[in-house]
Amino acid sequence: DQQVKQNSPSLSVQEGRISILNCDYTNSMFDYFLWYKKYPAEGPTFLISISSIKDKNEDGRFTVFLNKSAKHLSLHIVPSQPGDSAVYFCAASFSGGSNYKLTFGKGTLLTVNP
Amino acid sequence: GAVVSQHPSWVICKSGTSVKIECRSLDFQATTMFWYRQFPKQSLMLMATSNEGSKATYEQGVEKDKFLINHASLTLSTLTVTSAHPEDSSFYICSASPGISPLHFGNGTRLTVT
């Protein structure tokens, strides 16, 4: 049972445009959400996170939106750059579980075309 | 920022042999480290939680006798794949946190069992 779902395996956008990556979750106990970026043959790199007490968190070109009622979050990248091309993983955890025990989605491959 | 180092980055071994993968936190102490496994085009699956000075906690379906974890110090955890078989071929990634989220990941180890 996939508790964190990224239904789009891939996304292609033009440089300078907005990239929107989506993530849905089923476990209402999740209260902390993260986005990681991963290049081939490398470990994931942390991008941005959001706590369930917020509905938006912004860091430079990256903004994460959380809709708790819909159990949905999204990552917006604007403007998109070719260097943003990578696999993006959505991850979730909850306070009651082991510290930092993350459940990951399957990832979305983002390609930013020059 | 927090750095997690993993070694080796890739290894090829013959079926039936054992392989040890090291995970080190370079600039912080980690009482807990996590071992993940990723199959191609799949999400990162948590295998086990490595606890310094005590036994590791394994996720359901992960054979503890096959994937031996040792967390002998606050900066080192090792994962040993015993009697490796081709189906154990995968990308293994460790992670740790300096106590303040988020998790930082190593660069992973690509294991190929022939």
Report on the architecture of this protein.
The complex is a heterodimer of chains A (about 110) and B (about 110). Chain A is mostly beta strands and about 110 residues long. Chain A contains no helices and eleven strands. Chain A has strands spanning about 5, 10-15, 20-25, 30-40, 45-50, 55-60, 60-65, 70-75, 85-95, 105, 110-114. In chain A, strands 2, 4, 5, 9, 10 and 11 form a six-stranded mixed beta sheet that branches. Chain A has a five-stranded antiparallel beta sheet with strand order 1-3-8-7-6, with no helix packed on it. In chain A, strand 7 (about 60-65) and strand 8 (about 70-75) form a beta hairpin. Chain A is globular. Chain A starts with a strand and ends with a strand. The mean pLDDT of chain A is about 90. By secondary structure, chain B is mostly beta strands. The radius of gyration of chain B is 13 Å and the shape is globular. The termini of chain B are far apart. The mean pLDDT of chain B is about 90. The interface of A and B includes residues 9, 44, 99 and 100 of A.
